[in-house]
TrEMBL record:
It holds the Pfam family RL10P_insert. SUPFAM superfamilies: Ribosomal protein L10-like (SSF160369). P0 forms a pentameric complex by interaction with dimers of P1 and P2. Residues 290-319 are annotated as: Disordered. Keywords: Ribonucleoprotein, Ribosomal protein. PANTHER family: 60S ACIDIC RIBOSOMAL PROTEIN P0, LARGE RIBOSOMAL SUBUNIT PROTEIN UL10. GO terms for molecular function: large ribosomal subunit rRNA binding; structural constituent of ribosome. GO terms for biological process: cytoplasmic translation; ribosomal large subunit assembly. It comes from Ficus carica. Ribosomal protein P0 is the functional equivalent of E.coli protein L10. Belongs to the universal ribosomal protein uL10 family. This is 60S acidic ribosomal protein P0.
Length: 319
């Protein structure tokens, strides 16, 4: 079988992508920087079942999406086009978006710090014996790493921040990390955006629990209620408060005037004579208070016979 021409490859790619757009409604847009072909193959194997990874040139993907939209009249997938920027790929899935995202994150491979790479994290060189002979100390001196010679090998004394996140890796840093056997970076597919049936959102949304959603909804309802009350605009959320506030106003008028109604009578009675509504527990408390001195007197009486017994034995202050 001969090689396919560029035109044939484009036709085959269009057919494949359009088929996926017909079958799937959920897509993860992933960054694929520094991800090798072997690693990508392992990710494909790990996701096999309900997910398909599709890579390709952004121009080809955009073209296929537009063709699919024109042929089907489905404009929803056009929302993917602005997201196809940089080295990205598409994961079509029928599974749970959160579970698929977590599965993708598992496939990370350690990588050396190559010259010119932008560090995705801070790189710290740990203290300890490096196993390098003293002739290698020049590497450490250039990078201002404190060392000492211990049993014929170079030992790093304290941890050193060799590269900061966002900085480019220099030749000296790359050479030292290579000599120490440190592979500080790890790369894999990173979920940038989620497409779900026409909606586009950040992957952080997948981490929200039902409790988080309820809390956010409650906060929104609270704001709506506050605004409605402030401008006296009736809404379903503010209705209970509006009725309560209105009832308070009516009750205040009834209390301040001779006008009354059944629900206000008890309040009026209380204001006239609060003693009628005193809790019955008060007398019980008084009785308990009265009982306490009585008990104390009984104790005193019990102690008095002891003094009389001393007198009976013939002892007296005047003897």
């Amino acid at each position: 079988m001969g090689k396919l021409s560029k035109a044939d490859k484009k036709i085959a790619y269009d057919a494949k992508l359009c088929q996926l757009l017909d079958e799937y409604t959920q897509v993860l847009i992933v960054a694929a920087d520094n991800v090798g072909s072997n690693q990508l193959q392992n990710i494909r194997k790990g996701l096999r079942g309900d997910s398909i990874v599709l890579m390709g040139k952004n121009t080809m993907m955009k073209r296929s999406i537009r063709i699919h939209s024109d042929n089907t009249g489905n404009k929803a997938f056009l929302n993917l086009i602005p997201l196809l920027v940089g080295n990205v790929g598409l994961i079509f899935t029928k599974g749970d978006l959160k579970e698929v995202s977590e599965e993708v994150a598992k496939y990370k491979v350690g990588a050396p710090a190559r010259v010119g790479l932008v560090a995705p994290i801070d790189v710290i060189v740990p203290p300890g014996n490096t196993g390098l002979d003293p002739s290698q100390t020049s590497f450490f001196q250039v990078l201002n790493i404190p060392t000492k010679i211990n049993k014929g090998t170079v030992e790093i004394i304290t941890p050193v921040e060799l590269i900061k996140k966002g900085e480019k890796v220099g030749s000296s840093e790359a050479a030292l990390l290579s000599k120490l056997g440190i592979r500080p970076f790890s790369y894999g597919l990173i979920v940038l955006t989620v497409y779900d049936n026409g909606s586009v959102f950040s992957p952080e949304v997948l981490d929200l629990t039902e409790d988080d959603l309820v809390e956010k909804f409650a906060a929104g309802v609270s704001l709506v209620t506050s605004l409605a009350l402030a401008i006296s605009y009736p809404t379903l959320a503010a209705a209970p408060h509006l009725f309560t506030n209105a009832y308070k106003n009516v009750l205040a008028v009834a209390v301040a005037t001779e006008y009354t109604y059944p629900q206000a009578e008890e309040v009026k009675e209380y204001l006239k004579d609060p003693s009628k509504f005193a809790v019955a527990a008060a007398p019980v408390a008084d009785a308990g208070a009265a009982a306490a001195p009585a008990a104390a007197k009984e104790e005193e009486k019990k102690e008095e016979p002891a003094e009389e017994s001393d007198d009976d034995m013939g002892f007296s202050l005047f003897d």
